[in-house]
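Section handout 9: paired folding examples.
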Amino acid sequence: MIELQTPFLYMELRGIRYDRERAKAMLADTVEQIRPVGDRLAASAGKELRGAKGSLAPLRLMEVLYTDKGYAPSTPGNPEATASPPN
């Protein structure tokens, strides 16, 4: 980590070049690639799992997995948690 201290200090003092338009285009491409995956997950769950910004909403995902699908929460202290829903 020490070897990164000098470059980080340089960037902090002088700034960095940032191509906003390129970053915006890359984000749009990534969202376009991820959208079909979210559509498949939502279809499998039977409800929308994404939030306003398009990312998976943890509370919605937990509700589907633990309540609707019947998976047990997987925690170190829960030996009954299974990898598949109960029959």
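Moving on to protein 2 of 2.
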Amino acid sequence: MAFFRFDGKRIAVVIRMANRRVPLRGSGKLERVDGASQLRVDIDGEGADACGHPTFLFRADQWSGTIEKDFEFGCDYCIRLDASSPRVASLAGDCC
């Protein structure tokens, strides 16, 4: 995935838990880590205080999900995560 197009864009990271969705909004930043592109999303919008201003890191060589145009959360793009994933559940437990 070409992460360069998400650099400087507003990104909603939406965590799906049970019967609800928790949108966290932030800014995307392209980084290079060990030769791989990485998208860093620093959460700074509504809900950030409750979560301790988390940062999500998505590595191009490890990310198998999708990043879609956002038409629902007031951002440029949207990444949807499922709280049934153990890595997501640990964050969701703190935030949601």
